[in-house]
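#help-structures
NK: newbie question, is this the right format to request a structure? protein is CxC2-like cysteine cluster KDZ transposase-associated domain-containing protein
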Amino acid sequence: MFSSFGVGGIPLFLHLLSFCAKTSVYDFYRTLEKLTTNMGIGVPKSRYKALTCMLLQWRHLKMLKRGGRGHIDKDIETMEDHDLVVMCPSCPWPEINLLEGWDQAPHEMQFLYILLICMDTNFHLKNQMVSLYSRDPGLGIGLGYFILRAPYEKYVLNHISDEDISTCIRFAALTKADTKFSKGLQYTGVGAVSCTRGEFLMWLPMDYVFGSPLQPFAGLLSIIISYDIACQWFKNLDKHMKNWPSEIPPPSAKLTPAIPKFHEPMHKQDNHQEFLCNYIKRMAQSDYEVPERIWGPNNTVANSTKTMGLGSQHDMLDDNFGKTLSCKYAAAVKERNIQVEGHRGFTTALPGNLVEEWGRICELWEDDTFLKSAENPFATNEEYMSEDDVEKELQAEEEECRCRGGRVYHETSTHKFQRPSSLGAALKEERNILREKLWNWLLLRSIYIPGLVQYLTETGDLCGNNGDQNPEDVVLWLPSSLPADRLPRMEEKFCMAQCHDALNGIWHTLRVKTRMVYFRNKNTCGQAPSTRARCIIDGVHQRVLKFARKYRTAHAAKLELAGPSHWEKTLRVLENKDIWSYTDLERKKQGPGHRGNNEDHDKPVHASDDDEEDEMTLKVEERGEKEGTGKTHRTLSWIWHTTPVEIEDGADNNKEILWTEWCKSRACTKRSSEEVLLLREEMRRVLKFLGWRARWWQERQAVRNVQGDDGLAEGLVAFAREQESLQTALRENFEALWKMPLENLEPESKDEDENSTVDDSSDSGDDGGEESE
């Protein structure tokens, strides 16, 4: 076995191995032992404890070196709390990477200087009662990401009798935190506050964890904080801040709470819209699930740190925590363009007076302080359509279809099988049957004389399509009654009208379906009622199929008559994937799957282009854990952008659902536009921060007085220059990657003294992102 662990760079190798392969010190030592003697003969004296102690010291010294502590004369005891934390370069640091006069920025641009942070707890990082602080005090507790132990434990002991009351939801992790499984543990988990955007960890009851990392950001005007249970925690935060200890004074900035996007479905829906990320002003497209991405890689070290002493566990986790900015500018620009165009088309299809009123209500709600009392534009007032209402509408539609010369395929109504009981109803039913038999040939007439309606409109004689007449009084229109010279032009106009009429039918039916689903989810339970509701909704499905067939037939006829032209930009080819309500999420794109799983041949597998009508479904698609909620990038089908939506068609009485969905579309558009602006500002801040950090290392070269020790002086200068060159190289690399997004900034904004602001005039960019320590 190696006689010295320091030979051959073993500490550095083990350090990197613990990051990349999550190898524990014990497994590494056993590997060295097996390399020395795999037969178990002549095993040397165990040096496992010496290796663990050496590695802890090496990690700590490495953090001190990278924190610049070797370049000053003062001892380590004089260090401030959290001096060894890796600062997030994309966060807004006053006097470091913010523009001059940032606090005087216009109101609509102040979101660029808001601190976005997340708070969460990891219950995998436990610690057993195997040691005491007196025996394992740690080498740098409080200098890294963990808060000082003594004041934190004092604060916890003062609130040990506080009762946890859940007013919304109890997550499984919280429920199991205090159970028999926590027996023998000193700590059941680790709580942390992290940067939402750069995914850097800030230094670690949760009120203390929340207040500690905010002290360097005292000059900021606003802070957005997310927490899994923010709806419960934030309500009493003002009361709790009055009892905070003196070392964590309450922040003066405006606080805005949020719930991470993936945790939203687990919460109650009533009065929770003010905590949802997509609806909070100046939030951009942050998902606030950063803690989960930070905890994931560190969960693999949970078993090895569980049996460590408290100090050793803290030192180990301090060395593991750290991440960098991941920039998705190009994707953000693309998403912004999609959302803006979709919302613009949706808005154009609605009455201008309604849009103006809804926009005003949204602005009042967004500007209201928490907890909000303004009218909530994202919540519906339980506007449902019952099964009886749907049956009445189906019956009325069949009557209208007969009056217009349409055909109903069964003498008995599709919505009921019982005969009418009164004589008047019987006479009405017989007239309907007579009208159907009398007008069966109208199906052929609509094929061979499609311009009849246009002709009757131009001549002013509409009696041939008068649905108020009894069937015995209807005037027949024979083909010989029409002139043949204008038929193609009339038929083309008629096809255009048919397309718009079919789209209106699809709109109305989808809105009816939405109200039906609301009613079923709210009031239906049990097998029999659910089956009946399902049958009614299936009837709605058939109506959509009918209108889709009508549109496709008219579209094909229009294409034959008029040929390809600009009209196809408005009336596109209708596919089944385009038919979904404005309340539904866009359906997931299905690929061909893995080869060998979905086919019995060895030919290449291609995605199916077939779009059969019987494959279309109006059911809401379920999403798994890895597929997200789908609400951040939700879009509307093109069918809602084509022509003005008929508001007064009876699909929803008070327009609650349509109003809510328009407000959601507006919120998604605002967040996507903010994301582009915020990403560009973060790029600028990262470049400014790295320039500041390079100058910081340059100044460190001559700070420490080491007269008489030329070797030490030369080593200090060499290390400082190396770190300076690394910061400069990172800045140059990022600047090259982000050249396109930042090319429209003023030249002075890239220098040390930056006075310009960021705009969103660039519509394209490159993805940028690098890992650094």
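mod (FA): yep, format's fine, and the tokens are attached above. The chain has 22 helices and eight strands.
NK: thank you!
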